[in-house]
Design goal:
Layout lengths: L5 H35 L5 H24 L8 E4 H12 L7 E8 L4 E4 L1 H18 L3 E11 L2 E8 L27 H10 L3 E8 L4 E8 L1
Parallel strand pairs: 2-4
Antiparallel strand pairs: 1-3, 4-5, 5-7, 6-7
Helix pairs in contact: 1-2, 2-4, 3-4, 4-5
The protein binds adenosine-5'-triphosphate and magnesium ion (MG).
The site of adenosine-5'-triphosphate (ATP) has 22 residues, from helix 4 and helix 5.
Length: 220
């Protein structure tokens, strides 16, 4: 087989990004139209409105990733509210619960403005909560506790699902490490990379049969 030329890959990235962008716009436009009609008809179901907001937010994250693919992402991080973004991320990740019985306990004690790319920050939290959901077989609990202290905004995400074996705990941030049949092993690697590029970090605090906890620290 002939090796694929760099220019061919470049073109392919450009064309695929273009098509993805077109369809992001279609989904975004129609979800806004649905929202407008629901508001006009006085439909006030908060779960439906929350779902539409989550779709818009996810489309923004997809869009950021497509821009990254073209290496022209020049978005300067703007100041965002720590508590609001953390709470929005929890809502986004609930899409992965499906038919499991998972109790969410979310408590963000205080807040602060943080200078970080919001889409990247949110996609890290979504990755961690998605893993937490996947570690719970049928029934369990996920807690998201936030606090601002000592010049840092700290978010701890815990679950009581199946733990990470002790001999694997130093491998989980490696690119491609996965213990799942359909996993790619990119989630935690991307989280660490995104956060480290923005004055922030993520670590596994503990993982045992009672609890697994990840901690995100954003320096102020
Ligand atoms: N909350 C958790 N509880 C138990 N194990 C976890 C947890 N989070 C991560 N892991 C372990 O770390 C591994 C790497 O996680 P990572 O998110 O990087 O990849 P993945 O979930 O396997 O695949 P994907 O690329 O789809 O995210 C997982 O396969 C799992 O073994
Ligand atoms: Mg994952």
């Amino acid at each position: 087989m002939q090796p694929v030329k760099t220019s061919e890959i470049d073109n392919k990235i450009r064309f695929v990004s273009h098509e993805i962008r077109n369809h992001i716009s279609v989904c975004d436009m129609y979800s806004q139209i649905i929202k407008k009609y629901l508001e006009k008809d006085g439909y006030k179901n908060p779960s439906v409105l929350n779902a539409l907001n989550c779709i818009s937010q996810s489309l923004q994250i997809i869009s950021m990733n497509v821009t990254d693919l073209k290496s022209v992402n020049v978005n300067e991080p703007v100041e965002i509210d720590f508590k609001t973004s953390a709470e929005k991320s929890v809502e986004l990740s609930k899409a992965y619960v499906e038919d499991k019985d998972i109790e969410f306990d979310v408590f963000i004690k205080n807040t602060v403005k943080i200078k970080i790319d919001e889409n990247r920050f949110m996609s890290c939290i979504v990755n961690i909560i998605k893993n937490a959901i996947e570690s719970i077989e049928i029934r369990g609990k996920i807690s998201v506790i936030g606090e601002v202290r000592d010049n840092c905004a700290v978010l701890k995400i815990s679950n009581n699902g199946k733990p990470v074996p002790i001999d694997k705990q130093n491998k989980i941030f490696d690119c491609g490490y996965t213990s799942k049949q359909s996993g790619s092993g990119y989630g935690l690697y991307i989280c660490k990379k995104y956060l480290n590029s923005q004055n922030a970090d993520i670590e596994l605090v503990k993982s045992n049969k009672n609890e697994t906890t990840f901690k995100i620290t954003v320096s102020l």
